[in-house]
């Protein structure tokens, strides 16, 4: 059974940084397409970054381009999202997601950026 567990969220001041982690079990990072999504209060869930082993180049939404970095540690079956220069608008619950398993989502991790 594939499971995803996100961690690393918290409260940070605007301009600060956080690194989110997503540990995957029941899945081996050999051939993958994985993304980070977020959902702010009252808004729909949006994709903000994606990385595919077959393509190799990461994708970033315009709203996070230049500030966020996605990476994968195959040995640890973990995907990371380094978030720098955080803004109040980044406040949301963040989720990782394996595109091959559309119905599977973790519990998410809350990121709150104080302005």
What can you tell me about this protein's structure?
0% of the residues lie in helices and 50% in strands. The mean pLDDT is 94. Strand 5 and strand 6 form a beta hairpin. It is built from no helices and ten strands. It has 115 residues and is mainly beta.
Task: Offer a quick outline of the entry.
By secondary structure, this protein is mainly β. Helices cover 0% and strands 50% of the residues. It is built from no helices and ten strands.
Largest sheet: 6 strands, mixed
The total strand number stands at 10
Task: Calculate Rg over CA atoms.
Answer: 13 Å
Portion in helices: under 10%
Unreliable residue stretches: none
| Head-to-tail CA distance between termini | 40 Å
Integer average pLDDT: 94
Order of helices and strands: EEEEEEEEEE
What is the 3D form?
globular
In DSSP terms, counting alpha (H) and pi (I) runs of 4 or more, how many helices?
0
- Structural class determined from secondary elements: mainly beta
- Strand order within the widest sheet? 2-10-9-4-5-6
Tell me what portion of residues adopts beta-strand conformation.
over 45%
């Amino acid at each position: 059974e594939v499971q995803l567990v996100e961690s690393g969220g918290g409260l940070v001041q605007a301009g600060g940084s956080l690194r989110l982690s997503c540990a995957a079990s029941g899945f081996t990072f050999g051939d993958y397409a994985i993304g980070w999504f977020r959902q702010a209060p009252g808004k729909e869930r949006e994709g903000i970054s994606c990385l595919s082993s077959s393509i190799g180049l990461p994708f970033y939404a315009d709203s996070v381009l230049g500030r966020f970095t996605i990476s994968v540690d195959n040995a640890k079956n973990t995907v990371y999202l380094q978030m720098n220069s955080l803004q109040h608008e980044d406040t949301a619950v963040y989720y990782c997601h394996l595109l091959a398993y559309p119905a599977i989502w973790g519990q998410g991790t809350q990121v709150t950026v104080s302005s």
